[in-house]
Amino acid sequence: MNRATMAVIWDVDGTLVDTGELHFRAWQKFFGEMEQPFTRQHFADTFGRRNPEILRELIRPDLTDDEVKELGDRKESYYLAEAEELGIDLLPGVIMLLDGLQKRGVKQAIGSSAPKGNLAAILQLTKSATYFDAVIGQEDTQKGKPDPQVFLLGAQRLGVPPERCLVFEDAVAGVQAAKAGGMRCIAVRFVGHHSSESLRDAGADRIVESLNDVSVDEVIELIDES
């Protein structure tokens, strides 16, 4: 099978890297300035979603697009400052998969709810940009996960049919998005935001504790089964 006819699309936060604590600290600072609480439960309930949905849920639903952009930009400036200060590392098993898939000719893309500025910073800090043929972020989509738009757009830009794509995810909404797009999905629990049961119920084809537990051959075989 021609490997150029298959692709892997990576979620970022909790899958490629663990930036959860950086985001939590940024949200806490943001809402603290607004004298509004932001708890661990708020974070768990909104993790992996786009800023427009988070802000309209936690502040007020009638925020304008301009207000959403101004507020989102402020929060992301806090996140980027944290990332620059503390650094970001790829999660266990990621670099072996990125490198191995690239060497086997499998196309790869980012499919994330994060703003593209954040994604650029992550790829720069982790020195991983050269592995990806496309980067899909918040600005490229109108609908957030569990809608499959972000992953379908990734497949389109790679020139690979959705049924020949596999998604790496860590969140229930992301797994649901992958399956709604007709793609295979491996869910990783290393960060531990979601239980195995909830990821299985969302439709994950395989659930692993770490990407060290996944080989390139297994990824290719799972795509070939579709």
How would you portray this structure in words?
The chain has helices at 20-33, 40-46, 51-58, 65-86, 94-103, 116-125, 149-158, 172-180, 196-202, 216-224; strands at 7-10, 107-111, 134-136, 165-169, 184-188, 206-208. Helix 1 (20-33) crosses helix 4 and helix 4 runs parallel beside helix 6 (116-125). The mean pLDDT is 94. The chain has ten helices and six strands. 47% of the residues lie in helices and 11% in strands. With 226 residues, the protein is of the alpha/beta class. It is globular.
Using the alpha-carbon principal axes, give the shape: globular
What strand order characterises the main sheet? 3-2-1-4-5-6
* Main sheet summary: 6 strands, parallel
Strand portion: 5-15%
From N to C, what is the helix and strand string? EHHHHHEHEHEHEHEH
Structural class: alpha/beta
Features:
226 residues, 2 domains, Rossmann fold, DNA polymerase, domain 1, alpha/beta, 10 helices
How do the helices and strands line up, and which of them pair or pack?
Layout: E1 7-10, H1 20-33, H2 40-46, H3 51-58, H4 65-86, H5 94-103, E2 107-111, H6 116-125, E3 134-136, H7 149-158, E4 165-169, H8 172-180, E5 184-188, H9 196-202, E6 206-208, H10 216-224
Parallel strand pairs: 1-2, 1-4, 2-3, 4-5, 5-6
Task: Provide a brief overview of the structure.
The protein is α/β, with parallel strands linked by helices. Helix content is 47%, strand content 11%. Helix 3 (51-58) packs across helix 4 and helix 4 (65-86) runs parallel beside helix 6 (116-125).
